[in-house]
Known about the structure:
Strand order of the largest sheet of chain A: 1-2
Largest sheet of chain A: 2 strands, antiparallel
CATH architecture of the largest domain in chain B: Orthogonal Bundle
Number of helices of chain A: 16
CATH class of the largest domain in chain B: Mainly Alpha
Structural class of chain A: mainly alpha
Number of strands of chain B: 2
Distance between the termini of chain B: 43 Å
Number of domains of chain A: 2
Order of helices and strands of chain B: EEHHHHHHHHHHHHH
CATH topology of the largest domain in chain B: MetI-like fold
Oligomer: heterodimer
Strand content of chain B: under 5%
Helix content of chain B: 55-70%
Strand content of chain A: under 5%
Amino acid sequence: MAKKEKDVAVHGDKTRFQWTWHLMKQYKIGYLMIAPFMILFILMTVIPVVFGMFVSFTDYNLLQPPQWVGLDNYVNLFLNDDLFVTALKNTMIFAVTVGPGSYILSFVVAWFINELTPKVRAFVTLIFYAPSLCTGAYVVFGYIFSGDSYGLLNGWLLNWGIIDTPILFTSDANWIMPVCIFVALWMSLGTAFLSFIAGFQGLDRSQLEAGAVDGITNRWQELWYITLPSMKPQLLFGAIMSITGSFGFGAIVTTLCGGIPTDYVGYTLSHHLSEYGGTRWEFGYASAISMVLFFLMVGTNMLVQKLLSKVGKS
Amino acid sequence: MKKLRTRKHRVVLSRSAGGDFGVAIFMILLGILMFFPMYYLIIQSLKPLDELFYFPPRMWVSNPSFENFSDLFNLLNTSWVPFSRYLFNTVFITVCGTFGNLIFSSLCAYALSKLPFPGHRFVFQLIQKSLMIGSEVASLMVFVVISKMGLLDSYWAIIVPALATPLGLYLMKQFIDSNVSTEILESARLDGASEFRTFWSIAMPMVKPAWLTLIIYSFQGLWNTGQNLYVYSEELKTLNFTINQVLLEGVVRSGASAAATVVMMIVPIVVFVISQSKIIETMGSSGMKD
C-alpha cells in the first residue's frame, strides 16, 4: 500500500510522458512476459495481414521483388475474373446459411441441454460436440452420400422405390451446395456451442426466480427478458467464432466432391485462393483474394457485433 | 394457489409440460441426426469386405471384424518410410506445439491481465480483434514468412505458427481476469516473491481448467496436421497425411479408410471426455465485454 501512495506522490510532479516512462520501467517484467507470444503473434498474424495488404497491390512470385501494379489485381478480380465472381457468390451463400445456422443451432441446443441433469448433460454435450471435435470424421458422408447404390442414402431410396437411378449427390450441380451446407452444419457445434453451454450454466438462478415472481410464465419470455441480456458476452464471442468459421468454407467441398466440383458449383474463395497462391504462385493476385476475404470477415463481424450490442437494450 | 411443477423434487419455473415434451422430441431427433454419421462410420470400419458392398447398404454389421484395421496397418507398413516414423512426427509436433503454446500464452495472458504496463489494453484489443480473421486470410503470407525464415521442410514450419494462437490467449486471459484475485498476487509480492515466481506458483495452479482447454485446442489443431505446403520430405510427413493417402486410393480401400478415420478420432474424444468439465468451466469466462 505504501508503494501505491508513493506512486501517487511521484505522479504529482511528473509530466504525463515521464509518468508513462516511469510505469514502463516499473512493469518492464510485463513486456518481458508478453515478448515470446507477441513476437510470434506479430510474425504469424500481424505481418502476414499487413504485408498481404501491400502485396495485393503488386505482382509478386516470391522469387523476384514485388512489382507495384496499383489496383490492377482488384480490377481484374471484379471485372475480368468470372471464376472469382462465382467463388464470391458461393462463399456468400455458404456464409449466410452456415454462419447464422450454426449460431442459432449452437444456441438452441445449448439452451435445451441446460435443462438436463449434469451426467446426462455431459453425455449429450459429447454427442453434439463430437463432429466438430473430430475434424476428419465428416468423410463418413462420403459413404452416406455416395453416388452409387452402395451409398447409404441412395441405397435406401432405391430400395424403397422412391427413385429409379441413384442421385449423384456429390457431383450433381443441384445437390452439391445443399449437401455441403448440411455437412457444414453437422460439424458446426464448436467453440461457440461450448461457450453457450457455459453461459447457461453460469446464469443466476435467483434472477430466474425473480422473473417468475414478476410474471414471466413461459420459457420464451424467460429467454427474451432474462437469459439473452445476461448472456450477451457469450453471444458476442460466439458470433465471432461462427462468422469467422463460415467464410473459410472450402475443405468440405473438396473432400466430399473429390476435388473442385463440376462446373465450379460450390467453388469458394478459399479454393480460388489456393489455386492462385498454392498452384500458380501468383501471390499478388492471391493476396487480393485474401484481402476480399479479410474485409468480408471483419465487416460482417463489426456489423453483427453492433447488432448484438442492442440485445436487451430496448 | 397454483400448484408449482417439479422436476426431481425441484421446482421448475416457466416451463410447461407440453413444452418440455416438445423440447425432448426435438433433442432426441436432432441427437439421432448428429450421432448417426458417427455410428455409421464405426460400423463401416467393422464391416468385412462383402458386407461393405451389400445392397441395400446395412446400418449394422453381421460379422464384425477388425480386418479393416489390420489392412490399414499393413498398408501403412508397405510405405518406404516406416509407420512409426509418421507416428513419431505427429506426436513430436503435437507435444512441442502444445507445450510451447501453453507456456507462451499463459505468460502473455498473465501479464496482460495482472500487470498494468502502458499499452496492455491496446495489445489485448489487437489480439481480440484478430479473432475476427480466419486463418485463410493470413495463410499465404505465413508461408512467405516461414520460407524467408528458412523453416520450410522442417518440424518448425508446423510448430512455430501454432505457438501463438489468438483464441488460446483470449480464453486464458479472460479466465485469469475472473478467477485469479489480484489481492492474492499482491500479498505474494509483498512476501518478496519475484514476478515469475508469483506467476508460476500462485497464478498458474489457479488456472488449470484454462490449461486443459488450451491443451485440447492446440492438440486438436496439431494432431490433425495433414497435407500442407510447408513440408515436402516424406520422412517428415504426419500420420494424418499418410492416412489420407489411404483414403485417396478409392473404393477398394473403403473399409480401411473408415478404420483410419476411427483411429484418428479416438485420441481427441478420449482427451475431451476426460477434460470436458474443465473446458466448460473455462468457457464460462469466454464472454466478450464490450
